[in-house]
Write a structure and sequence with these properties.
single chain, alpha/beta, 7-stranded mixed beta sheet, 5-stranded parallel beta sheet, 8 helices, about 30% strand, globular
Length: about 300
């Protein structure tokens, strides 16, 4: 495959992953300089020409908001430098939990972010496991929405000893876990949770029989790990043999690492859409670099990418 006319760049939040993607694609990561001023303002600049090129910019929009602003500035810089096409690769799309008005007088943050990206001049977006699928409709450009299941299915199949049961840590994840259960021909269990406030679970109950089973918890992200670890402990109380968790985005904020250490989770398998802040004995990381690189290759060669859309 020819890679002429293609350049891959990265923001500060995703340099490690972007380098892996570029290597898998068959290119070196492009040179970007970030100038920081004493007042906290910053300015990214491309240190090589992008005129007439298809430019891929890799950046997960994790907190702080500087990561999102850096991505927007890089898109604007590429546009003003006469790039032919600008494709943003956002492995983890931040603010995706703000996809609707769930109470009066709040913003729909995901739509606002989409508007900002559209205004900056993007031609296409690639992302993975959006917290809410309907966010794809917030954009007026093509959205390639990849699924962590493409990475996770082979790993779960290795564990399938005929005793597995798929599980959702909450009702919102039931559809995702059910898709895994159908594909792997296993049972399904669901934890029903009630929240008093964000990131704090008040009460949980189990729907389904997990006694004597090896439970596989499926979720799109692990933030404070409160729901995940409580679900794992509850499954063990209900007689499960083991509990493993597969989560695409390892946000792991606040007390997440401590909770995972103390929990009944045997292993937490995540992807590198977000770089871990520290290593952990219970956490195993699978790379999404080859998947993104292959989709990027297929895109620039006008080939079908539907084989990667294993819905979860």
């Amino acid at each position: 495959m020819s890679v002429s006319g293609i350049k891959i760049f990265s923001g500060c939040a995703s340099k490690v992953l972007a380098k892996k993607i570029a290597t898998s694609f068959g290119l070196s990561l492009g040179d970007v300089k970030l100038t920081k001023f004493s007042d906290g303002e910053f300015q990214p600049s491309f240190e090589e020409t992008v005129r007439g090129q298809d430019v891929f910019i890799v950046q997960s929009t994790i907190p702080p908001a500087d990561n999102l602003l850096e991505l927007l500035l890089m898109v604007d810089a590429a546009k003003r430098a006469s790039a032919r096409k600008i494709i943003v690769v956002i492995p983890y799309f931040g603010f995706a939990r703000q996809d609707r008005k769930d109470k009066p007088r709040v913003a729909i943050g995901a739509k606002l972010i989409a508007n900002m990206l559209m205004a900056s001049g993007i031609d296409r977006i690639m992302t993975m496991d959006l917290h809410a699928d309907q966010i794809q409709g917030f954009f007026e450009v093509p959205v390639d929405h990849l699924y962590g299941s493409t990475i996770f299915y082979p790993e779960i199949e290795k564990l399938n000893n005929g005793n597995l049961i798929m599980a959702a840590p909450d009702a919102g994840g039931a559809k995702r876990s059910n898709a895994y259960a159908k594909r792997l021909n296993t049972g399904l269990a669901i934890c029903h949770k009630q929240r008093k406030k964000p990131n704090e679970v008040a009460e949980m109950t189990v729907i389904g029989d997990v006694e004597g089973k090896d439970v596989i918890l499926i979720d799109d992200m692990c933030d404070t790990a409160g729901t995940l670890t409580q679900a794992a402990d509850l499954f063990m109380e209900k007689g499960a043999n083991t509990v493993r968790a597969f989560c695409t985005h390892a946000v792991l904020s606040g007390p997440a690492y401590e909770r995972i250490t103390k929990s009944s989770i045997l292993e937490l398998i995540v992807t590198d859409t977000i770089q871990l802040s520290e290593e952990h004995d219970k956490i195993r990381v699978l790379t999404v670099a080859n998947l993104f690189a292959d989709v990027m290759k297929r895109m620039v060669n006008n080939q079908s990418i539907s084989s990667h859309f294993i819905i979860s």
